[in-house]
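Please, structure for the following, as tokens.
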Amino acid sequence: MTRQVFLLLGSNLGDREHMLSQAKEQVGERLGKIRATSSVYETAAWGKENQPSFFNQVVEISTSYTPHKLLKEIAKIEEELGRVRFEKWGERLIDIDILYFNSSVVITSNLEIPHSGIPNRRFTLVPMVEIAPDFEHPVLGKTQKQLLDECDDPLEVEMV
């Protein structure tokens, strides 16, 4: 059984575009077939602002993994690509977040789907709208386009 999953890739250290490319390659090889890829966008850091700006990209995949197995495999990819977790919202070579998993709602101690930050983060919504504007948030009942229209995040999101 395949599931539709949206992932957010992000990097703000080193060769950011190369890191996204490597992450996307690993996602496609190990997690599932890539169905769609947004453009790459640059945004100032969110949450902890005194750090380099991020490159972000959303990737849609179809996978046979369960949400928790997917999270485990993502952590392996991040580690292999050099990710070290220093602090929440801190600088990082690579970050891969699960945004949506079908229209499932998963809330456990280490995983929350849909990702709780989606409605408040323009850097997530802009690439989501590019590839899936009508995908509906399973809790809020709004499309990605509607969420972006309502988002009050002031950070600019610019296509690279």
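The chain has one domain: 3-159. The chain has a mean pLDDT of 92.
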